[in-house]
Structures are given as structure tokens and as C-alpha cells.
């Protein structure tokens, strides 16, 4: 291939990320409460237990 036919691909590097945010995300930083899906599952399980005992 001749040099006239070669296409150069320019890739811009991604912006640097904050290293502290990645560490916090790995530790699951934030509020200490159950997620909505976990609460829903717990309510569903409690309802099943009540109906079974009834």
C-alpha cells in the first residue's frame, strides 16, 4: 500500500478519572440502607410467611 492510501486514525485519550471515587465505589460508600428491590423482596417474603401461618 502506498502512503497516499493510508488513513490515520486519531483517538483522543479519555479524561483522567478521580482515583478516590473508584475506591469509594468499591467499598460501597453511601447510605446504609437496603435497596428498593431488597425491601420489596423482604416484604414479599413476609407476606408469604403471614399467609402460610394463616
Describe, in plain words, how this protein is organized in 3D:
By secondary structure, the chain is mostly helical. It is 48% helix and 0% strand. It has two helices and no strands.
List keywords for this structure.
single chain, 54 residues, mainly alpha, 2 helices, 0% strand, elongated
The count of strands amounts to 0
Helicity level:
40-55%
Helix/strand order: HH
Rg from C-alpha positions?
Answer: 26 Å
What is the makeup of the main sheet? Answer: none
Instruction: Estimate what percentage of residues fall within beta strands.
Output: under 5%
What's the mean pLDDT score? 84
Give the overall shape, derived from the CA principal axes.
elongated
* Class of secondary structure makeup: mainly alpha
Terminal CA distance reads: 81 Å
How many helical elements?
Answer: 2
Low-confidence stretches: none
In short:
The protein is mainly α.
Write the layout of secondary structure elements.
Elements: H1 19-26, H2 36-53
Amino acid at each position: 500500500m502506498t502512503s497516499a492510501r493510508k488513513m490515520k486514525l486519531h483517538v483522543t485519550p479519555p479524561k483522567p478519572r478521580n482515583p478516590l471515587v473508584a475506591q469509594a465505589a468499591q467499598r460501597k460508600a453511601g447510605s446504609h440502607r437496603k435497596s428498593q428491590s431488597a425491601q420489596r423482596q423482604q416484604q414479599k417474603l413476609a407476606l408469604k410467611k403471614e399467609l402460610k401461618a394463616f
